[in-house]
Design a protein that fits this description.
CATH topology of the largest domain: TIM Barrel
Radius of gyration: 24 Å
Number of helices: 9
CATH superfamily of the largest domain: Glycosidases
Distance between the termini: 39 Å
Oligomer: single chain
Shape: globular
Strand order of the largest sheet: 28-27-26-25-35-32-31
Number of strands: 35
Helix content: 10-25%
CATH class of the largest domain: Alpha Beta
Largest sheet: 7 strands, parallel
Structural class: alpha+beta
CATH architecture of the largest domain: Alpha-Beta Barrel
Length: about 575
């Protein structure tokens, strides 16, 4: 894997050591092995961080495998202090040993975890890390997103992802070190809140230095005392006042200005730790019927992005592949993505921050409503928000999609309570971003109302959502997909309304031998017709004043779901300039 970007872009130390590459690998379908010494034979080799289901891993086995094992040797990087072992994401539950010492257990397939392995290291010679992964392919009560529970992918479901699918890496840290950072911009006060947590033995004279800069200009250079291992301060910037000057520092898709942060930890006059980070000044919220960015109404032009690649599944093949996706999305006239049923690699979020792309982050769904499912979703959703809170590109949280996992919202109070609980939990953990409780239909607690409507004739959108429609008719009588838009007792309260899924036109290359097996909401075998339909959809939707934005389905073809604007290899189906003119309107 060609990776040069740091796997944790918002808290970087100068040195980190990737453990990606060749690992020993074994399936354990019967689940009989419990400890590293139980694995006597390693019949396979796998290229980490690619899942064994994908071709790039070197295995390409898409069968049902509920348990698998990984192992490799490594050299501990030289230096003093502690050695941390990081996993970006392992699907679904795993146990980690170093030199047969248990160092970590983690459940949740989309969030990172780490282990302090200092005490497990041998005094000399190579070290050995072993990982046992459990991922029941039939378990519908775990957050699994678009991963199919059937042997062959069907409809809108894709191949499974088992095991390690994001970067594994080592980090040498001091005995006392900066463990985490959290940034919150307060545009109305021209301030930024920084929260830092320090791990290890704390001296009496410990202080944290914070230097913020942009374009070579120092914005703040302060020192704060470390109290009980924490520092939480509002940093007041010099407010230039008039908008023309303020805009020079504000973050937006059109002008993604990042503020560089250098954080230093001091014990008296001794430098203990140093990390690099970044933040941005921007505000997102809803005001009456509009989405607001930096105090102004902002029209959202989003595209649904599944985040899959043919040969690597959910793992990006390289940093450059992530960069190319964002360049293509912006070139087609979109200013954001709705990451659908996937928590994306932090490197994507860093590139979205630096290149200027809005992101709606959506929790991968479970498909049963049980106490176990709720517990798993809530625990992992909290970890997601904690991981990604500080990224300026993220402007909306979406805990549920299309009532997946809460299928009986209209008639089951517990399902409605779950959506409301997740909405309020999300607002508690992050009161500064809009939250959509359940995107698509059957809204209860929500800051925006998202509508999914795959009508084959876009002219019907004018009848449903055009200027002649009354709000009571819209919410009481219109049922896209046979679903009511708002549940009884939760009327529309003036929130912005968006068409957050529509289109889905399937088109495959005529010479494609699988062309007859493709899936889409509508289909065509002619590129010119594809272009005309897309243009008609977008012209119609952009013309409807009720909407504060839209999200078109979808960015690329994804396996049998061939309704992308691009083929799965990222080749445009029609010229990019035609897509851009339709998406954006005449410029």
């Amino acid at each position: 894997m060609n990776q040069t970007l740091h796997p944790r872009p918002q808290l970087q130390r100068a040195e980190w050591h990737s453990l990606n590459g060749q690992w020993k690998f074994a399936f354990d379908d019967a689940g009989r092995r419990e400890l590293p010494r139980d694995v006597e034979v390693w019949p396979l080799r796998i290229e980490v961080p690619f899942a064994p289901e994908c071709a790039r891993s070197g295995i390409g086995d898409t069968g049902f495998h509920p348990v698998c094992w990984y192992e490799r040797e490594f050299e501990a990087p030289p230096g003093e202090g502690r050695l941390l072992l990081h996993f970006g994401a392992v699907d679904y539950a795993c146990t980690v040993w170093v030199n047969e010492h248990l160092v970590a257990e983690h459940e949740g397939g989309h969030t990172p975890f780490r282990a302090d392995i200092t005490r497990a290291l041998r005094a000399e010679g190579p070290q050995r890390v072993t990982v046992r992964v459990q991922d029941d392919p039939h378990d519908l009560s775990k957050p699994r997103g678009k991963q199919d529970w059937m042997l062959e992918p069907h409809s809108i479901w894709y191949p499974r992802t088992t095991g390690i699918w994001q970067t594994v890496w080592l980090e040498r840290v001091p005995d006392t070190y900066i463990e985490s950072l959290r940034w919150t911009p307060h545009l109305e006060d021209w301030q930024i809140t920084m929260e830092a947590h320090i791990s290890g033995d704390l001296g009496q004279a410990m202080r944290l230095g914070v230097k913020l800069s942009h374009g070579g200009q120092i914005l703040a250079d302060d020192n704060y005392g470390v109290i009980y291992g924490e520092v939480a301060r509002r940093i007041v910037l010099s407010d230039p006042g008039i908008d023309d000057y303020r805009n020079e520092l504000l973050w937006s898709p059109e002008s993604p200005k990042l503020i560089h942060a250098e954080i230093t930890l001091w014990d008296g006059d001794r430098l203990v730790d140093k990390v690099q980070s970044y933040t941005a000044l921007r505000a997102v919220y809803t005001q009456r019927d509009r989405f607001m960015l930096n105090g102004r109404p902002y029209y959202l032009r989003l595209v649904l992005d599944q985040g899959y690649w043919d040969d690597t599944l959910m793992t990006p093949p390289s940093d450059e592949a992530l960069r190319q996706d964002i360049e293509l999305i912006k070139a087609m006239g979109f200013n954001g993505v709705r990451k659908h049923q996937k928590i994306e690699d932090p490197r994507f979020l860093y590139l979205a921050d630096s290149m200027g792309l809005l992101v709606w982050e959506e929790m991968p769904s479970a498909y049963r409503f049980t106490s176990t499912a709720v517990d798993r979703l809530m625990r992992e959703w909290r970890e997601v928000i904690d991981r990604d809170y500080s990224h300026p590109c993220i402007v909306t949280w979406v805990p549920f999609n299309e009532s997946w996992g809460v299928p009986d919202l209209p008639k089951t109070p517990a399902h409605r309570d779950a959506v409301q609980a997740f909405y309020h939990l999300t607002k508690t953990l992050d009161p500064f971003r809009p939250v959509i409780g359940n995107d698509g239909w059957e809204s209860t607690a929500t800051d925006l109302i998202g509508i999914h409507d795959y009508d084959k004739d876009p002219e019907n959108f004018r009848e449903r959502y055009g200027p002649r429609i009354r709000m009571d008719e819209l919410f009481d009588r219109r049922r896209p997909g046979g679903r009511i838009l708002t549940l009884d007792g939760y009327p529309h309260k003036g929130q912005p309304i968006m068409l957050t899924e529509f289109g889905g036109i399937a088109y495959a290359r005529p010479e494609d031998p699988e062309a007859q097996k493709i899936w889409g909401y509508t289909c065509t075998d002619d590129a010119a017709e594809f272009a005309a339909r897309y243009t008609h959809y977008l012209e119609t939707v952009r013309d409807i004043g009720l909407f504060s934005g839209f999200c078109y389905t979808q960015f690329t073809d994804t396996f049998q779901e061939a309704n992308g604007l691009l083929f799965s290899d990222r080749t445009p189906k029609i010229p990019i300039d035609i897509i851009r003119r339709a998406t954006f309107g005449e410029e």
